[in-house]
Design goal:
About 25% of the residues lie in helices and about 25% in strands. It is of the alpha/beta class.
Length: about 375
């Protein structure tokens, strides 16, 4: 069963002072969080709810925590600071290794840092000692996705070095899948990871608190029973927010796709001839455009564009609306099958994960939590 979209929401008055906004829909998110939480609990997997897709929005973070997700995670300290200022006191993990200039804030704002560079670990230890604290770290090991992470052959040396540092606690181990090269988890590479975990635990003389087997791309392997027993944790964003496992992009049964909507106001409506001939160059974004429609069409111009979000990642809620193209500040849609729309009306779109992430970081879009 595919996750669903409520297509009854069609238009509403736009917010004052802006032509576009992000709408957060708690009921749909609660449903997703419960489904993914229960699925992972069946396999004895704890979750860190990844908030980078929503820019660290405190309302979404609270919904995750209220659903029983016990920790949060984000790649950017700006988002973590936003959650702390918003009153979030739960454990928050820093997913991306901090730059050297960020380490003091990372030690102050987070509870665990995924990191795999000796220079960075040394600097974390220095700042932890200076603040009279002990910082938890989880070294990342690269199994072939070729993003962050220490090569497997260097892992024991790195963890032994970190374990000996005052101010550092080696609390976990992590790996990553399907972010850079698209490498997927398999029984073989997961077995390699499990073997490395055992070696690290032997080296430091105690079990690790967190053994993180990946992200939303790892859910299918988990469901198939391919996780070694030592894996105890996943870092989940897209599956929680959209009910989608990221390996194949398939929906998790019982989830919703419309926890977030992008609402954009119609600025103009016109009948236009899509077949006008003449020389054409690349558009304002440097792209060659071929219209998907022909003949006389009824079109609308929306007050949202490429500087606001990844427009190609938007799917109209109304099936009678078709996205035709966009520039930096405008989006054009075909409303020939929905001619009742007029300037001032609002069209809604379901964003992809990347469209949501860029929208949440846009200074031009406001967000509104819909009760």
């Amino acid at each position: 069963m595919e996750n669903c979209i409520d297509r009854s929401v069609r238009w509403a008055d736009p917010p004052s002072g802006t032509t576009a906004r992000i709408e957060i829909r708690p009921d749909a998110l609660r449903q997703n969080f419960a489904v993914v939480r229960d699925l992972c609990a069946e396999h004895r997997i704890a979750i860190s709810g990844v908030t980078k897709g929503v820019g660290g929005h405190p309302d979404v973070a609270r919904l995750m925590l209220d659903a029983g997700i016990q920790s949060l995670a984000d790649a950017r300290l700006e988002n973590i600071r936003r959650m702390r200022v918003g009153g979030i006191t739960a454990p928050i993990h820093l997913l991306r290794p901090p730059g050297l200039g960020e380490i003091a804030d990372a030690v102050r704002l987070t509870d665990l840092i995924f990191v795999s560079n000796r220079t960075t670990i040394d600097a974390i230890a220095h700042h932890a000692r200076a603040s009279g604290s002990r910082m938890k770290i989880a070294p990342m090991v690269d199994l072939g996705d070729m993003r962050e992470g220490v090569p497997p052959g260097d892992l024991l040396s790195l963890t032994a070095h970190a374990h000996a540092l005052e101010g550092i606690e080696v609390a976990g181990l992590g790996t990553n899948f399907a972010c850079h090269t698209g490498l997927l988890p398999t029984r073989e590479n997961l077995a390699v990871f499990a073997g490395l975990v055992e070696q690290v635990e032997t080296r430091i003389g105690r079990p690790l608190e967190i053994v993180s087997g990946g992200n939303s791309a790892s859910l299918l392997a988990m469901k198939r029973g391919e996780f070694p027993p030592v894996i105890s944790h996943l870092r989940l964003g897209e599956s929680l927010l959209f009910g989608i496992e990221a390996a194949q992009g398939s929906a998790l049964p019982g989830t919703r796709r419309d926890g977030f909507l992008i609402a954009a106001e119609i600025l103009e409506t016109w009948d236009r001839d899509a077949d006008i001939s003449g020389p054409r160059a690349r558009n304002a974004l440097g792209e060659a455009v071929t219209l998907k429609v022909s003949g006389r069409r009824h079109m609308a111009v929306l007050g949202i564009g490429a500087v606001d979000t990844a427009i190609s990642g938007l799917s109209p809620v109304d099936p009678n609306v078709e996205l035709l193209g966009f520039s930096s500040d405008h989006t054009v849609v075909d409303i020939s099958r929905a001619r009742t729309f007029k300037p001032g009306d609002v069209l809604r779109f379901v964003p992809s994960y990347s469209a949501l992430a860029t929208a949440m970081s846009s200074p031009y879009l406001s967000s509104q939590t819909i009760a």
